[in-house]
């Protein structure tokens, strides 16, 4: 089957590999797409043309390809992402105003935390997360909160995946991870110091829906020099509580 | 070729027809997808499974399919949609506060206006637009503004498409459309009364980028009883001007 681009993948899988080539990239040339999707140039050329015909990719005047409005329109039909963002936005904005750093809203997707929203103050610390990013559960504030409230199989899978130690403070061993997750469940908040990003700390808290299930997490990432300021923990707690309440959550005894 | 679902469409076209089935719908059963994509049930079953395998569609506990997080994540890589929304948001929020009705941000996509954002007050008039909606240029406030500043071929295409008269006030004839578009260009604002939605009026204005090109439109849709209140035209103008300025537009002579 050499030379024809047949590699055991279905046409659909090849089409989706082209879409995946755009993760983390705003625009790509045809040869970059072919390389990232692991396709011969001729196959990439033919399938990219199908994407363009549909409107899922657009070819710019510079000859480079970008994600098209068609995919954006389809994506906004994702029920969780749109509803959570819409409900959470006023609380995230209040939290940004109170902290002037990065404010995140994330949901769990397998072993990753997907960032549904990021609001940032003008002088916020430099971070790698952005809207649509998917970062590992064990190394982010929102991820640890989501992991603390996930089924135990998810924790087993995280351990089995050999979690990476990004910085000296990143938790990777079972015992230290278990202790941290128990702390998060007890205190209702997670505080991380330089676990993924040097010079930054994060405070994160869980968001619950009407059934009491943790469906998202809110966090602030800020310059490490500000770690002692009281508005971070307070603000994150209030934002998480406000969003939960807007989702219909009523704490026991209230 | 009977029975096998071969109808001259490529696999890619069939996959994209499945995606298109979700326009305007939050969830669909397999048979609804097959019907809307015009595919035999067996073909739909096989291709939907490929979408699910990738994460572009998700099957809920109720057996119905929804757009998955994967598509949402890909969609947020659409450069125009994300950048424009992010830059425009504070101005749209101010406009919502000043008017307490619906606030829209839209861009032109062929002969349609795509709604990038909609913010709504609690008592806003009932409308059909939502984030991701695509409505005809000739029948919406934002659409008329975008059409007024589009290349003349677009106007010819709108006329050739036999624009639909949704309500008695909808403009559909060449002479009345030409006059309205000229007015919009002269006054820098468009005011429509019950052209798409009964009981509603709209005020819309163009957003320009650093090159002076009209790249988007802002509008308010409000209850017709409030048509005389001065904050609508003023607010829409200020929002459009603020967003244009944030995009780098500098009016001549300033």
CATH architecture of the largest domain in chain A: 2-Layer Sandwich
Order of helices and strands of chain A: HHHEEHHEEEHHHEEEH
Low-confidence stretches of chain A: 1-5
For the largest sheet of chain A, list the strands in their spatial order: 5-4-3-8-7-6
Radius of gyration of chain A: 21 Å
Largest sheet of chain A: 6 strands, antiparallel
Q: Give the CATH H-level superfamily of the largest domain in chain A.
A: GAF domain
Largest interface: A-B, 40 and 40 residues
Tally of helical runs of chain A: 9
Overall number of structural domains of chain A = 2
CATH fold descriptor of the largest domain in chain A: Beta-Lactamase
How much of the sequence lies in strands of chain A comes to 15-25%
- The helix-and-strand class of chain A reads alpha+beta
What shape does the CA trace of chain A take?
A: globular
- End-to-end separation of chain A in angstroms reads 66 Å
Oligomeric composition of the shown chains:
homodimer
Outline the structure in words.
2 copies of one chain form a homodimer. The N and C termini of chain A lie far apart (66 Å). The model of chain A is unreliable at 1-5 (pLDDT under 50). In chain A, the strands form 2 sheets. In chain A, strands 5-4-3-8-7-6 form a 6-stranded antiparallel sheet. Chain A has a two-stranded antiparallel ribbon with strand order 1-2. Chain A is globular and about 60 Å long. Chain A has helices at residues 11-20, 30-37, 41-54, 69-75, 79-99, 141-148, 152-160, 174-187, 231-246; strands at residues 57-59, 65-67, 102-109, 112-120, 134-136, 190-193, 200-208, 214-223. Chain A has 2 domains: 11-74, Orthogonal Bundle (Arc Repressor Mutant, subunit A), CATH 1.10.10.10; 79-246, GAF domain (Beta-Lactamase, 2-Layer Sandwich). The longest helix of chain A has 21 residues, at 79-99. Chain A is an alpha+beta fold and 254 residues long. Helix content of chain A is 42%, strand content 19%. In chain A, helix 1 (11-20) packs across helix 2, helix 5 runs antiparallel to helix 9 and helix 6 packs across helix 8 (174-187). Chain A has 9 helices and 8 strands. Chain A binds chain B through residues 10-13, 15-16, 19, 22-23, 25-27, 47, 50-51, 53-54, 56, 66-69, 71-82, 107, 109, 114, 131-132, 134, and chain B through 10-13, 15-16, 19, 22-23, 25-27, 47, 50-51, 53-54, 56, 66-69, 71-82, 107, 109, 114, 131-132, 134.
